[in-house]
Design a protein that fits this description.
The chain is α+β, with helices and mostly antiparallel strands. The chain has helices at residues 43-47, 51-63, 79-91, 102-111, 123-133, 139-148, 153-158, 161-173, 217-220, 225-237, 242-256, 258-264, 270-276, 283-296, 306-318, 323-335, 342-345, 360-372, 397-412, 420-428, 439-451, 457-464, 474-481, 488-518, 530-578, 589-592, 598-632, and strands at residues 3-6, 13-16, 19-22, 30-34, 37-41, 69-72, 95-98, 198-199, 202-203, 385-387, 393-395. A 5-stranded mixed sheet has the order 2-3-5-4-6. The protein has a two-stranded antiparallel ribbon with strand order 1-7.
């Protein structure tokens, strides 16, 4: 730390309890009270340097001419500690100006009117020269001087000292400190003129690591919140990138909010150091910090991580921050919800008025903010995927959010206190086009029904209407067809659409087989060697055999499904005949349960028979071709 030496006399000041004495051999003729400390000094050295002390002495002498002179300076910047240095300067005693004491000394000198009118090279001029020529040219000294402005902030603002320190730091934050060799709080290796690292004054030949744009984060985090806000504002005015400023704010929060560090890891053991020094902010201070940081964060999307925003929101809820702050954080998260993880969404309920284990209402509001943003997809791409520029499709944000919400529903579904309406509202908030498949939603509904076994049939059917049976995969259809927790109507619909999927798969297999047979090269027509033709024919035969096995398996599955549907239809009709005298509601049971597909199922059976016939005919054709091929060989 740079310093400037003033005075040449030896120190003649002695402290006795709460009093200072100047032992120059002459009796004291003036007593100065500064706070709880008294200074027994002499008039001449003080009057020759300070205009205020001259006025106070004149007033005290006129009032009490016979008694000793006593003056009081209760509001001196820096208090008794600073007046001790002022007194030594007036007596010409040796002292050092440093970045730690120049600000309070400058404020005290201006308060006491220690101008050139009362003495050459007076304290005001000395402190201004040191501040402008030394302190403001050095990062570390500027930072230290700004920190000392906290105790005398009103005086420092009047003298423009705090602003000059902030501007100095903001200007230096834009520049690589390695270019100028500015000393930093975290330090660094010494370098030779050639740029290599020095060890005991000897060049090692190793090159120092270049500092990144965040080299000043740790230093800036040592400032108090009001001064840190001034520094951030000055950096924004100088055009420093928003992502760099957002990173500094994030670093500052992680240092003073222990709740963030528990989930994201401490920042350089700063929280541990603060706890060891007993300087961890109180809950009220942390609440004010979060509210100020929310206003300080840039509004641009994606500048800070979603995990960090969720940490702020969680801490704000614990500390019961202002509703406006919580709502603002929810809106920020909603803008980039597609970057969140399932762990982020699982926020416990911190209020005794809510019965659920997790804060589902908060996730609902965040999702509403996300859906309110513009989610238009450029071009004619699918609403669930976009071209990523490399010829492949990637999931859109809305699709990623839909997958995230389905996973969240599956996690909160076991909570027995979660009401069906709340579960249904969150699931229905996601647009239908956002889910390419409804497997995740089906899994969440199944878990919810398992945990809420007492729900009546009507509420179960209402929940199952959330999913589209046509958008279930074959595996999900197979599971749902055997799921006893689902209503009967849903099971019938699942079986029907599973049958359709299998029919489409069989039709696709036949189409592939016909294409393979049609693409077989004719003998002697393609100009290919006999060996190549024989190898191609053998490959085609093997592929046909594999397809035949797959089609046989699918045919068996279709037959089982048709048989199961037929049995269920008979049971439903039997129940309808038994209860036909009640209200007539069961008379339309087949239609309500989706059994208006009788013609489709019959056509399915007929189709399967015709498929079997066509398959047997094609098999005979294939065998005939093989015999003809062997004879030709």
């Amino acid at each position: 730390m740079a310093c400037m030496k003033l005075g040449s006399k030896t120190d003649a000041f002695q402290r006795r309890g709460q009093a200072w004495f100047c032992t120059t051999g002459l009796p004291s003729d003036i007593v100065v009270e500064v706070g709880e400390m008294t200074f027994h000094l002499h008039k001449f050295p003080l009057l020759s340097r300070s205009g205020i002390i001259e006025k106070l002495v004149a007033e005290a002498s006129s009032e009490n001419a016979e008694e000793g002179c006593l003056i009081r300076i209760p509001d001196l910047p820096g208090g008794a500690k600073t007046f001790e240095l002022v007194s030594k300067f007036c007596y010409g005693v040796k002292l050092e100006l440093t970045a730690s004491n120049v600000v309070p000394l400058s404020c005290a000198a201006n308060h006491l009117e220690m101008t050139e009118e009362y003495g050459e090279d007076n304290l005001i001029s000395q402190t201004e020269m040191f501040l402008n020529q030394v302190v403001l040219h050095n990062w570390k000294d500027s930072l230290r001087a700004l920190q000392t402005c906290e105790d005398v902030i009103s005086y420092a603002d009047d003298l423009n000292i705090a602003k000059r320190c902030v501007e100095s730091l903001a200007a230096k934050a834009r520049t690589d400190p390695n270019l100028f060799g500015w000393p930093m709080e975290r330090g660094g290796p010494m370098q030779s003129p050639g740029g290599s690292v020095l060890w005991n004054g000897i060049s090692t030949g190793a090159r120092p690591k270049h500092s990144s744009s965040d080299w000043w984060y740790d230093d800036a985090s040592t400032l108090s919140l009001p001064l840190f806000k001034r520094l951030i504002s000055a950096m924004e005015a100088r055009g420093i990138k928003q992502e760099i400023i957002a990173g500094s704010i994030s670093y500052y929060c992680k240092r003073y909010l222990p709740g963030l560090n528990r989930r994201q890891g401490a920042v350089g053991d700063s929280s541990t150091r603060l706890a060891a020094l007993g300087s961890v902010p109180s809950e009220d201070d942390q609440k004010l910090l979060i509210q100020d940081i929310d206003r300080l964060l840039p509004a641009q999307k994606g500048l800070v991580s979603t995990k960090f925003l969720f940490g702020l929101l969680r801490t704000a809820m614990i500390l019961k921050a202002d509703p406006a702050c919580i709502s603002s954080l929810e809106r920020r998260i909603g803008l980039q919800l597609d970057q969140a993880t399932l762990e982020d969404l699982l926020m416990p309920t911190f209020s005794y008025t809510m019965e659920t284990l997790y804060n589902v209402d908060c996730v609902q509001r965040i999702l509403d903010h996300f859906l309110a943003t513009d989610q238009t997809v450029a071009g004619g791409a699918s609403p669930c995927s976009v071209d990523n520029g490399f010829g492949s499709l990637s999931l859109t944000p809305i699709t990623m959010v839909a997958k995230l919400i389905d996973g969240y529903l599956a996690e909160v579904a076991p909570d027995i206190n979660l009401k069906p309406l709340k579960f249904q509202a969150l699931a229905a908030a996601v647009p239908e086009y956002a889910r390419p498949l409804d497997d995740g939603l089906y899994r969440a509904i199944d878990i919810f029904l398992k945990s809420h076994a007492w729900l009546p049939e009507s509420e179960r059917e209402q929940l199952c209407r959330l999913m589209d049976c046509q958008k279930l995969s074959l595996e999900a259809c197979t599971h749902a067809a055997q799921n006893e927790r689902l209503p009967l109507r849903v099971i019938v619909q699942v079986l029907f659409f599973e049958q359709l999927q299998l029919r489409n798969s069989i039709a696709g297999c036949f189409l592939v087989s016909e294409n393979l047979e049609g693409s077989r090269p004719l003998r002697g027509g393609g100009g290919l060697p006999a060996s190549s033709e024989g190898e191609g024919w053998a490959t085609t035969v093997r592929e046909n055999q594999v397809l035949k096995v797959g089609m046989d398996n699918m045919r068996m599955r279709v037959y089982e499904l048709e048989k199961e549907c037929s049995n269920m239809k008979q049971e439903i009709e039997k129940l309808g005949r038994m209860k036909v005298s009640s209200s007539g509601a069961w008379g339309n049971a087949p239609k309500k349960l989706g059994l208006s597909f009788k013609s489709q199922m019959c056509s399915t059976q007929e189709g399967s028979v015709s498929n079997q016939t066509s398959m047997s005919g094609k098999s005979e054709k294939t065998k005939a071709r093989r015999r003809k091929h062997k004879k030709n060989q």
